[in-house]
Amino acid sequence: MMLRIKRVPTVVSNYQKEETEEAAAAARRVSGCGRNCLNKCCIQGAKLPLYAFKRVNKFKTEMGVHGHEVREPEPPVAFLDSLVLGEWEDRVQRGLFRYDVTACETRVIPGQYGFIAQLNEGRHLKKRPTEFRVDKVLQPFDGNKFNFTKVGQEEVLFQFEASEDGEVQFHPSAPIDVENSPSVVAINVSPIEYGHVLLIPRVLECLPQRIDRDSFLLALYMAAEAGNPYFRLGYNSLGAFATINHLHFQAYYMALPFPIEKAPTKKIISTGSGVKISELLNYPVRGLVFEGGNSLEDLSNTVSDACICLQENNIPYNVLIADCGKRIFLLPQCYAEKQALGEVSSELLDTQVNPAVWEISGHMVLKRKKDYEEASEENAWRLLAEVSLSEERYQEVNALIFEAIARGDDANGGVAESVIGEADAKPKSGGEVDAINKNSCPAMVSGTPECLVLHSGSRYCGLMIRYCFYKLASAMTY
Amino acid sequence: MDSQLGLIEQSFNNRYTLWVHEALDELPDSFTITDPSISGHPIVFASRGFLKMSGFSRAEIIGRNGRMFQGPRTNRRTIMEIREAIREERPIEVNLLNYKKDGTPFWMLFKMSLVFGKEDGRATHFVAVQVPIVSRKHMRNSGMSYSEDGGGSRLREIVFGSCRREVCSDSLLDLDRVLALDSDDTGLEIEDSCEASDLEKRKAATAIDNILSVLTHYSQLTGRLVCGKRCSLPGMGFISSSLYISLGRIKQSFVLIDPHLPDMPMVYASDAFLKLTGYDRNEVVGQNCRFLNGVDTDTTVLYQIKESIRTEQACTVRILNYRKDKSSFWNLLHISPIRNASGKIAYFAAVHTEEGCRNQDRHGLSLEMRQLSAIGAIKVAVRSLSMGAGPSKS
């Protein structure tokens, strides 16, 4: 049985048509000639600004390990930041947006967390809702549907690539090198906030909406390069309210903390590559927080591996990249499934809030004045609680994630790591370890203590054992 | 940079008599004082105790922002909490991991409080006290951090339960330390979290009180009084310190005009504007921009500007303006309405560029793009900062 929901998709480009129109246009092979799009018909000779970022291997700290690092002067608005803001304002003045988002009333809801509510009547169209399949997180790219090669070039702000020579480079007008598979940043013509853009990795390759290591790293680089903790990136998988099945991340400016960023966390584990993984506490949606890492790549790979695991297990999820890429939130969800099964109350459905990454983070865009005026922390909490996986399901999903990360860690780790925990796990208390295996870690490869001993040099086992201890400890304190 | 040092000196001289430095130097505590109205929200004073604790010299600290003491293991969420307290102009007390000059991390109790102008209610300075945490306490409850070393001891702690904490904690701490030394080949072992003791909290509170009373005393002598709590509500045209901090990051020459006040005065002028026109801040804030115009300024252009403001549209004009020293320059002026969170216009922003200046900055952003990026940054700042409840009323 296929699960579907109906919703009016958000219009992100001035060239996005209704599904029936798109299909008809595709059938007639009118794919945008003379419209100045990104397809083969128009892209020859097209030029866009190009921002080439510096690939940083270690996280920059203003303090070196022994204070030898050259002290950087006070960062003014970073260059990438200026580029995004300037180009966006330019499109505002050229009238490319469907409405002025800064004219939309918005406020922080009084309460402990400070959820942010916005009254935006212009964002949603009074059009016929489209059907979306919500039970498959991985779906193949469909060229007949709207995708980002169909946007107008004026909606694209700049290309975003890694620089060849390790220095930041900017070319105000660079030809789009089709061979090089450029990644671009485009505007969202129905913005949620000022500066709402879409990062589309390797746009001409027409990748479906699914995370891979390279794309996620690109997104992290963008967050780090912008250097602004209020410029956050977000990702919605299919089934978690992505409406366009063409790989993209979103970003915008909000100079306030998101409620999710304020939630306390409890550390679960540190991986071999120094990534700290915690769980969110006291927040309506259950999720994981990733921080640290010996390098940006390490952090990126750990999160990507987790996302890929969820995708492959058909679990819809959202990702929030916050704090200049230093804190990443991963939130599996099940709202769409509930909606398709008719399990969501009509009261919640009437608000027409589709809980994607921004809503889950605490930023609610409301289309009815009544909902805006009555918005309360309680209501927000109640809605988001429906989005969360149940505690049981969440623990199962976590186990899958940790297993995937451990595998990834192992594959990356050259040096075998010795962990005191392993030494203690050697049997003598063989029965104990056995119990851990069977009860708390269904994903463990094999249930015998001997197996652990054999692999005791690997990072995989180190991480899984630490995870098991964490679970055991949690179980015993409650 | 010279002008920044000048501003830093003025930061104190405007409010307090010169003896304040000596009086503050007599206090034994470790503390820093920052000024949010200076671009970059820099440290304007660092106590002897702070220099001793951190290993830095005064020259290395004055003019820098407090984030210079953060490092890879500083808790990101705690940093966010501090940033938000600054933005909301309220005091805060947190446990924070900082780094000394030689790179050693250390835990301290970070207590920050504000100093307000008595008459105008503005936040003039932030005072931050740092009390190193000497007692090593492990978090027992939900802050349970599993560190890589003490697998065995952890199990033992858990098995015993939390009630025996008082009895066995010392021996367990020793055990942990021994295990840490054994297994630790990464060098310095530092906990993921730390809690200050009541004694340390009292020390911090006393230090804040002492500093505030010194500052209050020395402000009486200049007549520009300060106090530890906001005594009066800020008046019209009030720009919060958080808006100052945000606007201070924008390097272009621009001003903010308040169209709701009589004669539409300038309520904010950037450092670059002052540099371009040669005026001091106190000469221009509160005045209408017409002082920039002169005999040869085209009146049709002035009319165009007025019309744009009236119809709430953005516009770009080329206008002849005059500096304080009466010299003139062609100004590529871009004006845009700026809305706040209510959706209504709060200000007009006017961004200036002197014609003939280098057409591109060193990165290659065109003049136009730079002006627009300033507008964008102003829009984000004004909108976001007006979403919340506003500055605390305490």
From TrEMBL, chain A:
Highest rank taxon of the organism: Eukaryota
Protein name as it appears in the record: GDP-L-galactose phosphorylase 1
Organism: Citrus sinensis (Sweet orange)
From TrEMBL, chain B:
Any one Gene Ontology BP term: response to blue light
InterPro entries named in the record: PAC, PAS, PAS-assoc_C, PAS-like_dom_sf
ATP-binding keyword on record: no
Pfam families: PAS_9 (PF13426)
Record GO terms (molecular function): photoreceptor activity
Domain PAS: 22-89, 266-288
GO cellular component: nucleus
Protein's name according to its UniProt entry: LOV domain-containing protein
Stored PROSITE patterns: PAC, PAS
Keywords, ordered alphabetically: Chromophore, Flavoprotein, FMN, Photoreceptor protein, Receptor, Sensory transduction
Domain PAC: 90-145
